[in-house]
Task: structure prediction
Amino acid sequence: MNRYKHVALIGLGLLASSISLAMRRADMTARITGTARSKATRDTALELGLVDAVFDTAAEAVKGADLVILCVPVGAMGAVAAEIAPHLNPGCTLTDVGSVKRAVVAAVAQHVPENIHFIPAHPMAGTEKSGPAAGFSSLFDNRWCLITPLPESDPAAVERLATFWTALGANVEEMEIDHHDLVAAVISHTPHLIAYTMVGVADGMNRVAKTEVVNYSAAGFRDFTRIAASDPTMWRDVFLSNKDATLEVLGRFTEELLALQRAIRLGDGDFLFDYFTRTRAIRRSIIDAGQDTEAPDFGRIKPEK
Ligand code: NAP
Result:
């Protein structure tokens, strides 16, 4: 396998730390360099052994790397790309882990020199935690990493990147960029927005005491709060940059919600029963696909580092 010899991680939060730990677990011997915006994060990453060397700037961190992975919020990708572009090693692969692809391509591609393989990607794995101490080596196990090559992407470079993600534990699939953004809006972005909204509703209802919301949360609300605790910067950027697809899905969501609201008002139990039967089948297919287990979740087991 043609493994990378030097991987540079730009941004050292949940995604980057998990990549580093998964690389070590896979016995990859590549040198890992990195940078983050704050000194505190850079110091923590070094202390935790996530990187062999940490640099104050992204320009220094990418020097000599044959794989550069942008692990910063989507809204920061363009500025980082502009900074590193003149310092990239000719022939290296530049990729990212951003949750939105069209906006990242628009922000990054304009800065990338011709002798660099720019191949966007999105590992569909994460938690509500952030920062360098949040990562764990099994984050990508049996999760999907969607690679969204550009029309001009070199197939051999795409294949090499796919092999890297497979070694980290992921299943890899190629997807067209705009289709990726629509899929992400359905299965990730809009559900996050709905969770944020539901927690906001509970927060704003002063006829229900805060202690009641907290104490009785296991009745369903608790699962929303986990998602609604996700990083505000990351999710602000996701919605600002995946606007069209999110609005499209939200429009459909609103129509469905109104249909359910109407069924409740009219006492149409058959409609509700049939609807919930269909949705239960979707949960079954997620378990059958190995993307979750049937075990009741009374609080997640802490993943091993
Ligand atoms: P995170 O834990 O918050 O880490 C972000 C890192 O980026 C931090 O090290 C931060 O530095 C650094 N950073 C922020 N702005 C920067 C800038 N302008 N220049 C340099 N570094 C900067 O975030 P994450 O969860 O790893 O997410 C990273 C990317 O992965 C995002 O694009 C997100 O969309 C994508 N993603 C996230 C998930 C998820 O569930 N979390 C899943 C899939 C993909 P400081 O610590 O110094 O602030």
